[in-house]
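User: We ran a pulldown and think these components assemble together. Before we commit to crystallization trials, I'd like a predicted model of the whole complex to look at. Sequences follow.
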Amino acid sequence: MTDASAETLEAQVLGAVEQRREIVNAAIEDDLPVDEPKRLYEAVRYLLDAGGKRLRPTVLLLVAEALADFDADPEAIDYRDFPDRQGDSVDVMAAAVSIEVIQSFTLIHDDIMDDDDLRRGVPAVHREYDTETAILAGDTLYSKAFEILVEADADPERVVEATDVLATTCTNICEGQARDIAFEERPDVLPDEYLEMIKDKTAVLYGAAATIPAILLGADDETVEELYQYGIDVGRAFQIQDDVLDLTVPSEKLGKQRGSDLVENKQTIITLHAREQGVDVDSLVGTDDVDAVTEAEIEEAVARLEDAGSIDYAKEKAQELVTRGKDRLSVLPENESRELLEGLADYLIERGY
Amino acid sequence: MTDASAETLEAQVLGAVEQRREIVNAAIEDDLPVDEPKRLYEAVRYLLDAGGKRLRPTVLLLVAEALADFDADPEAIDYRDFPDRQGDSVDVMAAAVSIEVIQSFTLIHDDIMDDDDLRRGVPAVHREYDTETAILAGDTLYSKAFEILVEADADPERVVEATDVLATTCTNICEGQARDIAFEERPDVLPDEYLEMIKDKTAVLYGAAATIPAILLGADDETVEELYQYGIDVGRAFQIQDDVLDLTVPSEKLGKQRGSDLVENKQTIITLHAREQGVDVDSLVGTDDVDAVTEAEIEEAVARLEDAGSIDYAKEKAQELVTRGKDRLSVLPENESRELLEGLADYLIERGY
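Assistant: Here's a predicted model for the assembly, 706 residues in total across the polymer chains.
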């Protein structure tokens, strides 16, 4: 592929993401209105309304389009009345919303657990409201996701399977988060343990986003499985890129303190690699208080990690995963939506925030 | 009914609850094993293993038995292979476990929100472990409940409906908890608002327990609806009785500080009634710290509420609800399981803890 066409694809991917984001946002308004009790539902919507690229629901919609072999013009598609393999109507948008709603629940509860102050450039829900409300808002989003998913109106057997995938995904996310927390106390985490942890913490939700539309639309087992693995591969790459961005992007752009992972002793593929190179990772930053760390301290820590080749190592690892993930897409018909799914995989590791 | 037969029924009900509790406990072991990561799953199981009467799953199993017109000998019944109306096999035990798992999740998160120290006579999960682990344990139970419910292996359309009921129930519980918290700041709560709040906070889970087996076994709409209302009526009565017990049972027996609702400014039907009688409820207890309150203070506060007739009023209200709830059961065939469901409704307001 020439540089020119690569540029075009990236622009296309960004346009595709943006278009679907608007459509997903409108669907969130419909499926998750601000109900009574008002303060609860305002907290429920607070983080969703604060922004977000809607990458996971976009993956879900693109997979549906690719399977239906549609032209990728989202404006012309009624995702609420989407044809399955037998031509019966499925509300794939409900599934897309449910994935974003789960994502939002996990962010709210994670921010309580990590006691993070900022998310998407605004106070975390437990800061804007209080911890009680944030726990409850997360719990409400959790059940709403299932309420919304069962409205997908597909063949009931497939809805049951999709529900099972979503529930298992949530369990995995909790397990991953538990491991992530436990790793903070362990200096001997192995790279494979880390990759297993980010699979659970992050990648399974991409797996669910890619596989649920295939299940609802009646795709064959091989397609369902390969799409799941696409999600796992690109989801892992996404997490590794997140780890890189946490170190390399200015706080304002990141929407939270740069280097917060280092301050909070989070294990990442970067710190694991650096440890192997003999870097004393634990003393890179002298504080474990995000508010107390200085920009100069972070700068120096990042320079040490760069010198050790750890940031490049992470980027290579992410690139490998994306290449493998894209290969999985050969189970899909060749069409523009599939190309966008490939481009989206590239975007996940090229994005600057 | 003579006193003697009343006594016999109560003994029968207690026996029935105890028998089914053991069976449900064994099923929890099977459906929710202590997996990896171990610390997470130990926290997941901690409160379930600390005790509990399993009243909600018992309601669920009794409804299933009553619908199948079985003799009520639980030892002889395979709840994992239970015949629906068409004679097809349904795992009603999976549904029973899912209800108890949801109950456990709500208790863990509620105790964080209320910062309660004790539950079932042992430290609350966020005290025994920490808040992060308690949030995660609750979140894990949440998704496990759905994973377990979809294993009920009934007609997929009915599983989808049951899943929808469970998800909506969880949303209602969150809404009820949000209202309960908001009421703490409001001196002008109306009795109807209180009854609406405890419907959401407490009664809907009894509604789900009574209605989900009917859905899974293919009962008609009227039966499903009346059983739901049975759950709502007796669930509200259960909550009112809980409010009474919080004031009248010694702390050791209660498994937590007696009078904690008063200390925490929780609105109950008792305080609402007392307010109407001119009692200055807010100054009944001088502290809002459960650890600082004295037994003498609680004694005096309870005496004031008794003098105002507020505790008797609550008991009458609970009795009315139980009577109405029992009437709903006329949709069930007349059999021993139905009698036990009637007796269980009485027990909910006669129990001493």
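The first helix of chain A runs from residue 3 to 31. That may be worth checking against your pulldown data before setting up trials.

User: Thanks, that helps.
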